[in-house]
Amino acid sequence: MQLITKFGGTPTQERGELPLAIPPESIRNIIHSSTSAAEQELMQSVEDTIVENAEVTGYNLLIQMAEKMNMGDTIPSLRQSLQEEEKMFGWLRATAPAMFAKLWPQIESSSSSSSSSKIKTTTESVADIDQTFNCESCSTIFNSREELRQHTIQKHENK
Is the pLDDT of residue 104 over 70? Predict the structure, then answer.
């Protein structure tokens, strides 16, 4: 916080979030209701690893930026945060095989009898959800990701 004040900022309690591929809530609810606790734990572990890796990358970039901007005072704090994130990322990577080995038998036993019907039910439920896609540039609404992509290429790229 001292660094923020030193550079003219005001500390807050706000927290940033990394961009993750999160499906709409209706799809999350369907997936959540059709997965076992072991599957959910494994998916959470994967997400945690992705986040930690992104944080390591972010701190490395911040250190490089601080060096280029002659903000050497910030580097020790950034390096400390980087080391903490690297330690957590390393731990997640190191424990991933053991976690997978622990959870996989539970996942197999909970899904072996009904996996094909579970997949079909989930697929049908997801297909029944109406989705729309908004153009961030002009707020036009589309019924498919492909329509939005074509619109973006035709109307907004290279302009």
Answer: yes
Q: How many residues does the chain have?
A: 159
Number of separate domains in the chain:
2
Shared domain for 56 and 35, answered yes or no, is: yes
Evaluate whether residue 124 is within a structural domain: yes
Cα separation, 61 vs 67, whole angstroms: 10
**Domain hosting residue 135, numbered range:** 130-159
Number of helices followed by number of strands (H, E) in the chain: 6, 2
Of 4-8, 63-67, 128-132, 150-154, the least confident: 128-132
8 A C-beta contact, residue 133 and residue 148? yes
* pLDDT for 114: 53
Note whether 83 and 138 are same-domain residues: no
State residue 34's pLDDT score.
81
Which residue type occupies 12?
T
Pair 62, 106: CB distance under 8 Å: no
Specify the long-range contacts of residues 6-14, CB closer than 8 Å, at least 24 apart.
6/73, 7/71
Give CA–CA dist 74/80, Å, rounded. Answer: 10
- Strand partners for 50: none
pLDDT at residue 145 is higher than 70: yes
Instruction: For residues 57 and 78, give the distance between their C-alpha atoms in angstroms, rounded to a whole number.
Output: 12
**The pair of three-digit structure tokens given for residue 126, joined into one six-digit string:** 């997801």
